[in-house]
Structure formats: structure tokens, C-alpha cells
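I'm curious: can you give me some protein's one-letter sequence along with its C-alpha cells because I've never seen that pairing?
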Amino acid sequence: MLHQDYFQKPKPFLLGSYVNYITFPIEKSNLTWNFWIQTIHNIDWGFAVDTTESDKTNNVKFSIYQKKTPENFRSIELDVGIVVDNLENSEYSIKVSGNYEFTEENNNMVIEIPGFDKIIDWKQGFYDDKAEEKKFKIRYNMVVKSVRLYDSVELFDFYNFDPTIFDTSVKAFGHTMFVSKKMISLQSAVLSGMIEAQNIEWTDLPSTCWFDIFHDFLQIIHGVDLFLYKSNIGEFLKLADHLKAPRITEYCKKQMINGSGGISLKETIDLAEKWSLWDVIPRKLAQARCLADLKAQNWELDNLDDSIIKQITRRIFELDH
């Protein structure tokens, strides 16, 4: 299927990819999730699971759609794979894959998987019948095959040497990667030392740092403008702190302030407090150019510390005079 197997040589999905695992309670009929592809900046995506008609059709309906269509939209081509996992034997997992092109006229792709009767039959092994909440597990994977947009980026291929970009190699998590030591040394002396030793183990990085986070961290170090979102920005902040990489911390702060990738105001405040990013709140307030802008930011005063309330009060005074 369309996903990275990090026990083998990783695949260079240079235009971007996405993978997620979700669970769907069998008593539900329709749920949706938001997601973002890091190489594409100006599209918010949605993924939906619908079993409303499944008793009649015996199909589970999946939808992939664009919640926000960019201006000057042309097309995006995705290879998509969906798996309903069988918990007892992966050979019995239900799988479907296909190639889909999203255009301005067609930005909602529907995929149907047969076998709903098997999925809800506890004897078939798609969910734990003894669990308090009975739910089946779904994995959806996407690989970007082509993009005709104005706001997308291409990743570096760290697995094949290009002398115009890279100047050394390093063994990271068991994989040989080619990188620019010059570029890295300008931004993180700690990471530069690891590169010089030519070997990076799991124990050298935070325990929650998986290979995909480290790979994308290197992409940003090398200048690729990746779009971060609420489920991973905390890991990038943690890794930037661990590796003493202030440019990456600043990169994360800008995306927090702009509310990228579904990052809420509360999550921005929590992250700013956790990592002592004391300039984030003033910069967020500075985005408001009038009282209407400040109101639109939707600060929940009842849940804020006095220090933040004082900053908001000061900004109100500035805008009102």
C-alpha cells in the first residue's frame, strides 16, 4: 500500500504524502476528520467515513474532499489507499486504492469499500468485542503524484546523493541519508556534531521523535517551507529545543501565530507557555489592526492568565486611541 516502510529504504515522495490512523465506533454513522499535506500550503482537507446506507449497500463510504479551495486552482493528482484493519489477521484486512485528480469542478472523491457485514460481525476480527467502545481501525494513505498550484513545495531526496546540494552522509535511524553539513552547521551546532559523527540513534533524540518527524525537520533545516499543523508542531518545537535550533523554533512560532493547520488560539497559548515563547502572544495581538480584528481573534478571557489579559487590555487601548 501507499505508505512508508521505515524498516526498508524510505520512498522519496518528493511532492508530498500523508498517512493517518483513525478509529470509527460501530454505533456511529458519519464522522469527519481534518488533515493537511505539508507540501501544499493553501488547501484544508477533510476525510469522512459514512455508514448511513451501509445496511442497504453493504459498502462503507469514504470521502476525501477539499474544505478550502485556493484561488487560481488547477489540479492535484493523488494516489490514495484505504485499509480497514483486521485485528486478528492482516491478510483479511479490507483494502482499496486508486488514483484521483482533484480539480475545481471535482474536489470531492468518494471511495466505497465492500464488506460492511463482515466489519460489524465481531467474529470476523475487525474490532474487539470485549472493549467498552467497539470500533474498527482505518488507515488512509495519500501520495501526491502531480500538483498544478501556486503554493506548493518539493522535498529534497535525502536518499540519493546530489553533489550540488549535499556534502556528507549520515546514518540516521538505520537509514543512510545525504545532507548539507554546511547548511546544518549554520543552524544547529548540536545536530552538526551528530552529523560529523555520521550516526544518529533513537536515543540521541527525544523519545517521541519518530523518523518522519526527523526527516521533515531536516527538510526545514535545508530550506523547504513545510506546512505544519496542530498534531505535529509540538514535536518540531521539542526537537528544535533538543537540538538548539533557534531558526526552527522561530519557524514554528510564525505558524502558531498564523493559526496554520488547525492550530487553535488555546493551543497556541499552551505551546507558548510550555516552551517559554514569550513573544508569541504579543505578536499574535499585533496582527489585529483594529478592534474588529482583535474581537475576531476570539480571546476567551475567562480562561486566560492575568498577564495575557493585561496584554489584551493594552492592545485594546492602543487600537482605540
Observations:
- The CA atoms of residues 10 and 143 lie 13 Å apart.
